[in-house]
Specification:
The complex is a heterodimer. By secondary structure, chain A is an alpha/beta fold. Helix content of chain A is 30%, strand content 19%. The two termini of chain A are 33 Å apart. The chains are: A alpha/beta, B mainly alpha.
């Protein structure tokens, strides 16, 4: 899932300073799971803002709405009726959701309430770690299900580097070397031949931003007449 | 509790206004100590600014 962290309260407060009627829009998917921007976090932030503005003796109206997803138009459309009532929107979705909200409501100032950090997993309760950098050219089949481009601090396609010591990374001695993990996993599975050769450089043409994926069943709809 | 205290601190309220005590159902002296402790803290900190504002609004309405 996409992992995000709520921005510091002061930063959010500062960004909302010019407005008096604000809608906080949460997202019920990834950011809800990582406790950054779901319904509960929308409620907490709304209460904090209301209390803080009351202490500052500033009259402000904060409303709350949490959509199933902010990365789908059909869900964003669900607030079209009410959006007109507000001066600004504060989105607690990931960067994709915030942008889609801004795109859907072009005449409303949209502010970000979270910092989107990475694609990762729930390592333990309340802790998330990165696993994928969306390079568009996955080598996990070769590397025993461990991504060298993400899990190696240097993102090496062929490793380990000379800095590895006793299976640990030179950048962070508490972190296991991704390439040692890959080696051990493949050795266990008798698949070491996968990394005995040199992996070719990543295909950076697939990392051109912004990315675009069209499902093969929809090619005729979106790319009719093109080759 | 620490997290919630952090939320209060962020908005400019003293985190000491909030506390959680573990008190056994039959431990009346501990309950009395906790109440005294919180009362002393509230006196030292002064009125809750949110509450004060509320009173002002009511007066204005009258």
């Amino acid at each position: 899932m996409i992992v995000a962290q709520r921005k510091p309260f002061e930063e959010i407060k500062k960004s909302l300073a010019p407005y008096q009627n604000i809608l906080i829009v949460g997202c019920g998917t990834c950011v809800a799971v990582c406790l950054a921007g779901g319904k509960k976090e929308v409620g907490l932030l709304a209460s904090q803002l209301r209390m803080n503005f009351r202490i500052d003796k500033k009259k402000i109206r904060i409303s709350e709405e949490t959509l199933e997803r902010q990365c789908d138009r059909e869900f964003l459309e669900m607030i079209r009726q009410q959006v007109g009532d507000y001066d600004a929107l504060l989105s607690l979705a990931c960067g994709a959701g915030i942008q889609f909200l801004a795109e859907t409501y072009p005449d409303k100032p949209v502010y970000a309430g979270v910092n989107t950090t990475f694609i990762g997993v729930a390592e333990a309760a309340g802790m998330w770690t990165e696993r994928c950098r969306a390079c568009g050219d996955c080598v996990l089949s070769l590397t025993g299900g461990i991504c060298p481009r993400t899990m190696c601090t240097k993102g090496l396609n062929n490793g380990p580097c000379g800095g590895m010591a006793e299976g640990k990374c030179e950048v962070d001695p508490d972190r296991p070397c991704a390439w040692v993990m890959i080696y051990e996993r493949l050795a266990e599975e008798n698949r070491l031949e996968n990394i005995q050769g040199i992996l070719p450089p990543a295909d950076y043409s697939r990392q051109t931003r912004p990315g675009k994926v069209t499902h093969s069943a929809y090619l005729r709809r979106y790319h009719a007449g093109t080759k | 509790m620490e997290y919630t205290k952090g939320l209060l601190k962020e908005i400019g309220l003293e985190p000491e206004r909030l506390e959680m005590f573990h008190i056994g159902a039959s431990d009346a002296p501990a309950w009395a100590r906790a109440v005294t402790e919180m009362t002393e803290r509230a006196r030292a900190l002064g009125p809750n600014p949110l509450k004060k504002e509320k009173k002002t609004i009511i007066q204005n309405v009258k």
